[in-house]
Write a structure and sequence with these properties.
Keywords: Membrane, Transmembrane, Transmembrane helix. The protein is mostly helical. The protein contains 6 helices and no strands.
């Protein structure tokens, strides 16, 4: 796995990493009401999460966001690793978008006003996939 950072990766890693790290740090200080709200939103799309304590869920989510954000910002973590993490993370966020009523226009993938903050996570998915596709391309060319 190549650890050499490519110039095109830098703005993507910084933008996504700073955004996700900040989100994790904010959740780290979540009070009970915020934990309940975040947990409630997540359980609407992923019912299996109901069995988790809201405070524990938000603490785990915070830790994951801090880890992923840091991995994106630290150039020694290979792009394929952060790409896989970012793709998985953003995929779950887009799952929230697709499964939560009121976030999409009826019969469409187009967001409602309430859905725009979640729908924008498609950019995180695109960034993660770009890292993965680039790694596959490099492997096919024998660069790693």
């Amino acid at each position: 796995m190549d650890l050499q950072l490519k110039a095109w990766e830098v703005p993507l890693r910084v933008a996504a990493g700073a955004f996700i790290l900040n989100s994790g740090l904010v959740k780290l200080r979540a009070d009970e009401a915020a934990a309940n709200q975040t947990h409630g939103f997540a359980t609407g799309a992923y019912p299996a999460l109901r069995r988790l304590d809201p405070r524990w869920f938000v603490a785990a989510l915070s830790a994951g966001e801090i880890a992923l954000g840091t991995a994106l910002l630290v150039p020694v973590v290979p792009p394929a690793i952060v790409g896989a993490g970012l793709t998985a993370f953003s995929g779950t966020l887009l799952g929230l978008y697709l499964r939560t009523p009121g976030l999409r226009q009826q019969g469409s993938l187009r967001p409602t006003d309430q859905g725009i903050p979640i729908a924008k996570d498609v950019w995180l998915l695109a960034i993660g996939l770009a890292f993965l596709v680039d790694d596959v391309r490099d492997r096919m060319r024998g660069k790693t």
